[in-house]
Amino acid sequence: MKSRLVVHFLDGSLIKGWSTDLFPNKPTFHVNDSETEESREVHLADLKGVFFVKELARRPVRSQRRYDIERPGLGRRVRVTFRDGEVVEGYTNGYSPDRLAFFVFPPDPDDNTERILVVTQATADVQLV
What is the mean predicted confidence (pLDDT) over 18-28? Predict the structure, then answer.
């Protein structure tokens, strides 16, 4: 199945596209650029995270993101601070500092982001809250 992705690199660049071979325990995967259709091998070690999205087109910024929504079954509440200062909150059931990466699900089901594959080495702090 093709997953729509926004791939965020540590250097601040990104690729919007899709992949069929991305797994959280594999160090590499391929992303097909939505603009050029070119396939590129990507190493998780070069990434901040991979954002699985509903739509690749940029949505208008919502005035209020909801963080107060409980989403049973998605794991523990977590606050992730990336090395670049960005903070995301959500739920995870697979965080371990020894893992290459882990998934975070946003608290707001109406968010364009369905889930984030967070690369552990790109984080400055991960707090279970």
Answer: 91
Using CA atoms, how far apart are residues 50 and 4, in angstroms rounded to an integer?
Answer: 10
Q: Using DSSP, how many helices (H) and how many strands (E) does the chain show?
A: 0, 10
Nearest to 117 by CA among 29, 11, 36, 35: 29
C-alpha distance from residue 91 to each of 30, 63, 69, 102 (Å) = 26, 22, 11, 11
Residue 66 to residue 97: CA distance in whole angstroms: 27
Residue pLDDT, tens place only, 68-94:
666 667 789 999 999 999 999 999 998
Predicted pLDDT of residue 59: 57
CA–CA gap between residue 69 and residue 11 (Å, rounded) = 32
Q: Are the CB atoms for 90 and 51 separated by under 8 Å?
A: no
What does the radius of gyration of the chain's CA atoms come to, in whole angstroms? 14
The whole-model pTM stands at 0.88
